[in-house]
Amino acid sequence: MTRVKNSWIARLLTFERRGDVFVAPNPRSGPGERLFGGLIAAQSLAAAGTTADPDKLPQSLHLYFVRGGSYGVEVELHVERTRDGRSFDTRRVTAVQHGKVILEMIASFHRREESAEWQPPVLPAVTFEEAMPKSPNLGFAERFDIRVTPGDDSVFAVPPFWIRTREPIEDDPLIRACMLTFMSDFGPVPVARPPGMPMGPDAGYAASLDHAVWFHRPFDPHQWHRYEVRPLAHGDARGLVAGSLYTTADVLVASTQQEALWRC
Q1: Using N-to-C axis directions, what is the helix angle for 173-184 and 37-51, rounded to 10°?
Q2: Which keywords accompany this UniProt record (predicted)?
Q3: In a structure prediction context, what are the per-residue pLDDT tens digits for the chain, which is 264 residues long?
Q4: What are the two backbone dihedrals, phi and then psi, of residue 65, each rounded to the nearest 5 degrees?
Q5: DSSP string, the chain
């Protein structure tokens, strides 16, 4: 068990609460002009989870990035208790900044059940031994150890890559699910770019449109995980990708999907 209190991610998930409205702190500055999507997604999941039954853990989330957020400005997270059931709780979260909606999320929480455990066999897209350490230009990347494929010479970290936290994180399933959500926004946008478009900050305008995460198994951020993301389709200036997060034993921990806007 990791005995730690007040980690950096936990501090970002500590809210001022007014009923089912949560005021989230945000860093004064960050990489780029827009608030990192993985951060506001993690904060929205944490606010939703705070109102759910403690025995029910994150099962999935589906969200839309409606507007770009700003650093240094508090975000109000309005939680709607859509349903409380025997096995599942459902929540809707609306994130508001400057009086305008920047994110809409639906999240589901599930009480654990005994069942069959299965996943299809998988061959790693990049082994840990062949991956190379890198310090990419990603939001909050200094918080993580990242190892990429040897051919990744971009300023980003293009999946597949290996990732783990550099600092201890609380042994709390909601906080760790929020950490996974935070990390899951690393990588999908570059994979969603149009075929043939060069990689680089001047390649064109890109932004995440929506994002989804399915939580399959417990996540330990201190262990190395391999994040694989593959393109599914591109058209109408939108690219769709699907991601999978695996342990070193090739156990599937989470699945993701994201659609990104790419304008040349």
Answers
A1: 150
A2: Hydrolase
A3: 334 568 999 999 999 999 999 999 887 665 556 889 999 999 999 999 999 999 999 999 999 999 999 988 899 999 999 999 999 999 999 999 999 999 999 999 999 999 999 999 999 999 999 999 998 876 688 899 999 999 888 888 899 999 999 999 999 999 999 999 999 999 999 999 888 776 665 666 788 999 999 999 999 999 999 999 999 999 999 999 999 999 999 999 999 999 999 987
A4: -85, 105
A5: -----S-HHHHHT--EEETTEEEEP--S--SSSSPPHHHHHHHHHHHHHHHS-TTEEEEEEEEEE-S---TTS-EEEEEEEEEE-SSEEEEEEEEEETTEEEEEEEEEEEE-------------SS-TTT-EEE--S-TTGGGEEEEE-TT--SSS-PSSEEEEESS---S-HHHHHHHHHHHHTSSHHHHTSPTTPPPSTTS-EEEEEEEEEEE-S---TTS-EEEEEEEEEEETTEEEEEEEEEETT--EEEEEEEEEEEE-
Name residue 250's beta-bridge partners.
Answer: none
Contact of 103 with 63, CB cutoff 8 Å: yes
Whether 39 and 208 have beta carbons less than 8 Å apart is answered as: no
Q: Are the C-beta atoms of 188 and 230 separated by less than 8 Å?
A: no
Give the predicted TM-score (pTM) of the model: 0.94
Burial class (CB in 10 A: 0-12, 13-18, 19+), 172: middle
